[in-house]
């Protein structure tokens, strides 16, 4: 039986590498390097694979897998590839592993390869950042300066930084003039920006089903990447002209990670929720169109096979450290996934978690995980909470939809009594920190002022404490005021 060799590589520390500084220019260029490491076909990074007859299985989201026909060819790739990667992107760590592949036993080999890669991540690697005193270093990151032409790669690097933008915004002649690496070009009426992190649901089940067939697995990976990019592009196109253009006609949005089932962007604050809502909707549509047949063949997710996604949105000031904002967005995404994967929801949706998002507006300088923020800021007293999310794309029992939440926020600006309702909600939130009974009296006094029926219903919906668990009651008043300030506050 013919013996092959399955090679795997995993890029480590992607987030810490990308968000090493608080300069959007450095973040964009670092994300472009990661994108190029994993997907580029037009330069010398993968020459050691192609020249030795390597067959690509997957190259996306920091994961690389190749099949080699001979041991010598595989050994050459193992020797050359990490050197090229770490010279091209100093600060990146690459883990490698190889397993023997006999016949069609791809599933066993793939599982063994993943196990070996996890083991390799715990082993220290040689630091290529150390060098002579004369080594030129970047003043922002402290990393060695790399000239791409010296590595036999196609330059200049600016083309690589625009690759993600072309995938998301389209390849137009005005694209370069309308994108910026300066975060100050994003902000408009205030300083609020958003870091969005979205991640697909149900991929583990799909990989388990497809793991035994390398051709189907490879096709699925390519189609998933296409679905994610198309969903992001359609979501951007669905925005209004005002949302697409910022100061000087600049697009107030920049993709940081876009591939596989992952999406990370930095954008103007008021653009975030409309974009994410559209992205979650189109992600479901595109995965159904491109991946529905593959999942149907393997009896995945019932009669309407598609994938869903969850997202976390961290609203921060433009001067706030990006890496803390990204960490919070990732944490919020995990919180949304945990709620979407509750047993009753999985049973209602053929084992697939529904699409939803959570957001939080950072209003102080403390840096901590979301659980600590929840206890310190979103818990006014025992048994009560201001943590109302996640907000779901479609109707879900016991939860609020994104459309309903955004509609409530919009009604505060559409009525003359909106300011009075905001003030009343704010007083109620303050009273909740003191005494629940006092807050109840504040609420009765606000309703006695006889606002219009629509705003009365809005006030009652915002302050209504629905039972979220057996021990905690929650309301959306905090989220409503926080998001309204982001979209309507004018400080410039």
Low-confidence stretches are: 150-158
Structural class: alpha+beta
* Rg, Å, rounded: 25 Å
Helical segment tally? 19
Relative strand content? 15-25%
Number of strands: 13
Helix content: 40-55%
- Through-space gap between termini: 71 Å
User: Could you say which overall geometry the principal axes of the C-alpha atoms support?
Assistant: globular
Average pLDDT figure: 86
- Main sheet makeup: 6 strands, mixed
Q: How are the strands of the largest sheet arranged?
A: 6-7-5-8-9-11
Description:
- The chain has 492 residues and is an alpha+beta fold.
- The protein is built from 19 helices and 13 strands.
- The strands form three sheets. The chain has a six-stranded mixed β-sheet with strand order 6-7-5-8-9-11.
- Strand 6 (253-259) and strand 7 form a beta hairpin.
- Helix 2 packs across helix 6 (157-169), helix 9 (214-237) runs antiparallel to helix 11 (272-297) and helix 16 packs parallel to helix 18.
């Amino acid at each position: 039986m013919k013996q092959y060799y399955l090679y795997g590589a995993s890029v480590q520390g992607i987030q810490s590498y990308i968000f090493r500084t608080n300069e959007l220019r450095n973040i964009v260029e670092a994300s472009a390097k990661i994108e190029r490491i994993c997907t580029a076909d037009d330069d010398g990074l993968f020459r050691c694979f192609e020249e030795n007859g390597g067959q690509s299985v997957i190259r996306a989201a920091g994961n690389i897998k190749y099949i080699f026909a001979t041991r010598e060819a595989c050994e050459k790739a193992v020797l050359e590839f990490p050197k090229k990667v770490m010279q091209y992107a100093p600060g990146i760590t690459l883990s490698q592993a190889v397993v023997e592949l006999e016949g069609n036993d791809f599933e066993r080999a793939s599982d063994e390869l993943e196990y070996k890669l996890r083991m390799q991540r715990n082993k220290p690697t040689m630091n290529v950042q150390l060098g002579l005193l004369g080594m030129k270093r970047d003043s922002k990151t402290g990393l060695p300066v790399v000239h791409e032409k010296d590595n036999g790669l196609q330059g200049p690097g600016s083309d690589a930084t625009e690759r993600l933008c072309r995938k998301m915004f389209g390849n137009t002649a005005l694209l370069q003039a309308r994108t910026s690496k300066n975060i100050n070009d994003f902000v408009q009426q205030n300083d609020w920006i958003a870091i969005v992190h979205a991640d697909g649901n149900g991929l583990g089940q799909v990989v388990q089903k497809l793991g035994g067939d390398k051709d189907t697995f490879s096709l699925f990976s390519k189609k998933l990447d296409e679905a994610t990019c198309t969903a992001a592009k359609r979501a951007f196109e669905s925005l209004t002209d005002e949302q697409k253009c910022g100061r000087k006609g600049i697009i107030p949005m920049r993709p940081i990670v876009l591939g596989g089932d992952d999406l990370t962007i930095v954008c103007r604050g008021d653009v975030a929720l409309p974009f994410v809502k559209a992205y979650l909707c189109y992600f479901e549509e595109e995965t159904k169109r491109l991946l529905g047949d593959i999942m149907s063949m393997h009896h995945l997710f019932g009669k309407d096979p598609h994938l869903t996604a969850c997202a976390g949105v961290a609203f921060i000031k433009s001067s706030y450290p990006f890496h803390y904002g990204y960490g919070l967005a990732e944490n919020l995404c995990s919180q949304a996934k945990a709620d979407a994967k509750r047993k009753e929801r999985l049973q209602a949706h053929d084992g697939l978690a529904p699409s939803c998002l959570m957001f939080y507006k950072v209003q102080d300088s403390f840096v901590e995980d979301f659980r600590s923020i929840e206890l310190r800021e979103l818990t006014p007293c025992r048994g009560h909470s201001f943590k109302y999310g996640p907000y779901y794309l479609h109707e879900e029992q016991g939860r609020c939809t994104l459309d309903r939440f955004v509609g409530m926020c919009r009604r505060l600006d559409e009525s003359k009594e909106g300011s009075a309702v905001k003030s009343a909600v704010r007083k109620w939130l303050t009273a909740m920190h003191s005494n629940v009974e006092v807050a109840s009296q504040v609420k009765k006094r606000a309703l006695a002022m006889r606002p219009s029926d629509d705003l009365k219903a809005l006030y009652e919906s915002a302050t209504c404490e629905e039972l979220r668990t057996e021990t905690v009651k929650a309301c959306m008043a905090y989220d409503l005021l926080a998001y309204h300030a982001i979209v309507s506050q004018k400080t410039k």
